[in-house]
Design goal:
single chain; 258 residues; mainly beta; Protein Transport Mog1p, Chain A; 2 domains; five-stranded mixed β-sheet; 3 helices; 13% helix; disordered N terminus; Cu_amine_oxidase-like_N; Copper amine oxidase-like N-terminal domain-containing protein
Length: 258
């Protein structure tokens, strides 16, 4: 492959891998580094499981693929996130370890399966939440419910890709966050793979009627849709249930995409 973007760059690489690591601390001039000439190639398009993939750095900024001697280089961490793998960097030995991402979905020994009325999505909750469940029908929500005497709230929102201006999961999550006027702060805490699809999970602090709440919002991109899986409660309660919330979010499943 020899279709190059016209702008030349100088790239410093420790090793010639098909995928590069992205941000790696401790890079300095040493005998292990070799200076090369390569090209930023904006003609390259990546598709993962039928979904266009754009590599991003740790701050979410798009990264252009690098073309060097006909090989394409992308950040290893970004590619691993998109394909369900986990990357850990050991700076002392300068070693990248790649392992399969494990979803520890174990909300409890007994489980409660909740499906939307249109049979489009389902989610798994702790079994002892079923007797406290109040499932609601609300416009704009695929699924909405509260549990444990209105201490825990769940909402799932679906938007067809054709109905949004977002071209990627990153665009969709940023636009959705900007629309949360009550938020005080947000933190990207993980980029899991859910049902084989890429996701971004945020922990959001919000102030509503002078009361602090914490939202765990997981944005999921499927072939034709974007989803928001929202779990929230008071800040005090969140410290008790945040691990349960994470497991519930990971259990999200699109069962009908028609």
């Amino acid at each position: 492959m020899h279709t190059f973007f016209k702008r030349k760059i100088i790239v410093v690489m420790a090793t010639l891998l098909i995928f590069t690591l992205g941000n790696v601390s401790g890079l300095s001039a040493s005998s292990s580094l070799k200076e090369i000439k390569a090209y930023l190639d904006e003609s390259i398009h990546i598709v993962v499981r039928g979904i266009p993939f754009i590599a991003n750095d740790d701050e979410g900024k798009p990264l252009t693929p690098i073309n060097y001697n006909g090989n394409i280089y992308l950040p290893l961490r970004s590619v691993a996130d998109a394909t369900g793998m986990n990357v850990e960097w050991d700076d002392s030995s300068r070693t990248a370890r790649i392992e399969e991402y494990k979803n520890n979905i174990n909300v409890s020994e007994s489980k409660y399966m909740l499906k939307s009325n249109d049979n489009r999505v389902q989610i798994t909750l702790p079994g002892d939440w079923e007797k406290f469940a109040e499932v609601e029908v609300q416009d704009g929500f695929t699924l909405s419910a509260n549990f444990n005497d209105r201490k825990d709230f769940l909402a799932i929102v679906r938007e067809k890709k054709d109905d949004t201006k977002s071209k990627s999961l990153n665009d969709y999550s940023i636009n959705a966050l900007m629309g949360m006027k009550s938020r005080i702060s947000e933190e990207l805490i993980s980029k899991p793979i859910i049902q084989g699809f890429p996701a971004k999970q945020y922990e959001i602090q919000a102030l509503i009627n002078y009361k602090r709440f914490v939202y765990l919002i997981t944005y999921v991109e499927t072939k034709d849709s974007f989803y928001k899986v929202i779990l929230y409660c008071t800040q005090h309660r969140y410290n008790q249930v945040k691990d349960v919330y994470k497991d519930i979010s990971m259990s999200f499943k699109e069962i009908n995409n028609n």
